[in-house]
Every structure is written in structure tokens, then in C-alpha cells.
Amino acid sequence: MEALFIGQAYIDITFLTDKLPTGDEKTLARDYAVSFGGNAVTAGFTCAKLGIAPDIMCSQANDWLARMFLDMAASYNISIHGRKVKESSLSFIMPKDGQRAIVRCRDDHYLHPFQHLTLDGCRALHLDGHMPDAALHYARACRDAGILTSLDGGAVRENTEELLRFIDAAIVSMRFCEQLGLDVGETLDYLRARGCPVGGVTVGDEGLYWYEDQGPTTHLPALDVPASKVVDSNGAGDVFHGAYVYAFLSGEHATWTDRFRFARAASAHAIQHLGNEASLPSLENVRTASDLWPEKPVAAAF
After folding, report:
1. What is the DSSP string of 138-197?
2. Under a CB-based contact definition with an 8 Å cutoff, are residues 179 and 67 in contact?
3. What SS3 state is found at 46?
4. Is the pTM higher than 0.85?
5. What rounded mean pLDDT belongs to the chain?
6. Per-residue pLDDT tens for 206-239?
């Protein structure tokens, strides 16, 4: 395998409606999409769509939703290493006005230990912090083997502090900052202090604040996609992660600046489509977004 992605798998049901019914009310959605979901899982599908199919270790039940998920993975030539749970996990997502409300139904009670895989040929590991025992095991193993380790810090999880010691590129969310009670600059200092060579905080439509090694904090503004074009922002961050891992693996983007610019364009494509699968960019989609949309005007420093 060229890369391993580890996280919680979902089936996402994304729908557009102006109002959620209550009581005995009913409403009709304007549109909907059914797709794979989960942070590292969606990142892995992104990497595959761009041209490098990773292996994915994730939760897996023995039900019809799991069989649907496996069919989706097979269509992208992704090998799934399923860790047994009783029920597949579901997410119900309602995008509206650039935001999204989510109801998650998650089974992360694993019935068996995680699999021990051979890392021969593996060049990158991407984690979302779910399946914490597997995440820590493989982060240590990959760090020792000189394999790139990447973390999607969407939230602070039970072993985040320990896990960060083995992460080469930690890109975290504003929610991560809020859980720690830190602002963006303080969070970057936190990542530096834990030995992450590359660290960053995504700040929605303001883009990315990040550093590399002992260099200064750099701001990469978001691309200025018109609000009228934004359909569904859910999963755009996962696409960002999958795209920069692909950019690293492809060898065509030698610097982290180039990798993040590539990932930014991938995310700009993603937010214009409903559901994770429709949001996945091709290489041509990335080039188009990069050429079409200028950077947003730079906001005041954090």
C-alpha cells in the first residue's frame, strides 16, 4: 500500500431543506445525496479520486450499510481493513447558508483489536483521531519508519496530546482551538511545543494559518468562491486533508506551500457540490478552481 488512512466510517445522508419538521409535520427536501462519510475516510476517497488509492482502516459492521460502503470503496480501488462493530454509523447533514447541522448515529464500540498491517511500501499515514489505539500504534510505527504522519485535528480526543508527539503534519480546526481554550496563535504554539514539524489551523472562509519547522506563521487565504456557488461545506476540510496527502505522495508538489495551495483549490471545488462523493475533485477540477477563483482579501492578523 502507498498510504494508510485510519478513522470512523459513516454513511452520510445530506439533504437540502429550509425547515426541519417537528411533531407530525412533514417537509419535502429540494435535493439529497447518499455517500460515504467520516473525516479520514473522506480524505482517503479524495486521495483515490485524485489518482492514488490508499488503504483505509475503519469501523465495519455486518449489515447492508456496510455492504454499500464496501461497494463504494471498491469503485475507487480502495482496500478496506474493517474493524468489527455491531452497527454501521450514519450522519444526517443539513447544509444551509454556508453552515451545516449534523446528527450522528455512531457505533465506535469495537468488538475486536485492530489489525496489524505490514507497512512495506507505505509513504503516508493520515489519522482523524478516531480508533485511538490504532492511531497511536501506527503513528509510532510510521514515525519510526520515516513515513509521513498526518493528523486531522477536527476535535481534541482522548489521546490527542500523546498522539501529537508522533505527527509530522497536524492541521486542526477552530473547534480544536476552542476545546483547548486557545486562540489560533496559541494553538500553533501548542503544536510547535509538541514537536509537530508542520502545524496549521483552518479558519473556514479565512483560509489556513500554518508554520513549518522554526519558520514564521504564514497565512494562506481561502479562494474567493462566490456565496451563490456554495452548496455544501460539509466534508470540505476532509477533502483538504486528502488532497495535501495526495500532493505529497504524487511528488509533483515539493513544498508544503504548494501542497496546501493544491488542497485549497480541491476544497474550493468541493463546497460547490452536494454530498461527499459529488464533492470529490479530479486533477482537472483542482486546476480549474485554482485558475478560476482569486484569493479572498487578506483579513486582519489573528
Report:
1. HHHHHHHHT-EEEEEESS--TTHHHHGGG-SEEEE-HHHHHHHT--HHHHHHHHHHTT-S
2. no
3. helix
4. yes
5. 94
6. 899 999 999 999 999 999 999 999 999 888 999 9
Sequence-ordered list of residues with C-beta below 8 angstroms from that of 291, at least 6 positions apart, any chain? none
Residue type, 30: R
Q: Please tell me the total number of residues recorded for the chain in this structure.
A: 302
For residue 73, give the 3-state DSSP assignment.
helix
Helices then strands, each counted (H, E), the chain: 10, 13
β-sheet bridge partners, residue 58: 7, 82
Angle, vertex CA 139, rays to CA 135 and CA 144, nearest 5: 155
- Report the distance separating Cα 19 and Cα 141, nearest Å: 48
163: phi then psi, degrees, rounded to nearest 5: -60, -35
Instruction: Compute the average pLDDT of residues 7-32.
Output: 90
Q: What is the pLDDT of residues 238-252, one digit of tens each?
A: 999 999 999 999 988
3-state helix, strand, coil in the chain (%, to 5): 35, 25, 40
Report d(CA 230, CA 97) in Å as an integer: 8
Per-residue exposure over 214-223, b if at least 16 CB sit within 10 Å of its own CB, e if not: eeebeebbbb
Per-residue cell: 165: 508527539
Rounded to an integer, what distance in angstroms lies between the CA atom of residue 225 and that of residue 222? 9
Task: Taking residues 51-58, report their average pLDDT.
Answer: 98
Residue whose grid cell is 462519510: 37
Across residues 64-75, what is the average pLDDT?
Answer: 96
Mean pLDDT of 186-194: 97
Outline where DSSP puts E strands in 9-110.
Answer: 10-16, 31-37, 55-60, 79-84, 89-96, 99-105
The distance of Cα 302 from the centroid of its chain, to the nearest Å, equals: 24
